[in-house]
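Checklist before submission:
- one chain only
- standard amino acids only
- sequence pasted in full

Submission:
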Amino acid sequence: MWIDIVLLVAVILGIIKGWQHGLIISVFVTAAWILGVIGALKFCSLVADQLRDRFEWQGEYVPVVAFILIFIVIAFVIYLIGKSLEKVIEVAQLGTINKLLGVALRVTIYVFVFSMFLWLVNEAGFVSEEVKAQSRTYRFLQMFSNAAISFFDQYLPAIRNIFRDIEKFFEDLAGKADQVV
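Returned file contents:
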């Protein structure tokens, strides 16, 4: 039952955010998060070295500050590009279409994130068979996450083994727990 409630909340939030921001901003916000994290990971050590050299900063927090700064700069630039493009869309009077497509995108993203979270907690053994049986949406979410994992496995080789590693981690953890008992 809690699965259905959380899914309903995710869908409602997706509808609200999608309608508020529309497709253009939703795409650019998603890109800003993804590219911001990737860029911050890639350039973190370089910027941390610059912060140490130029400002004579010391300590373990310097890479964290560098990560945050890079993320904010990249995300802000991408967001500004999206806002500029959204103005063009508004001038072309495609606002309602933009909002409806934004709803579709945000709902899909929120359902995706929840289905992946549910997959993870299920792999960890936190979702009982009783909870699965009571849920009206569990099977859909399971199919959704399986399709997403299959897609990532096939088309994104950089993260191909992440899901297998997570499954193996929880299998090993369960094996160790059995040995203790």
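Reviewer check: Residues 2-180 form one domain.
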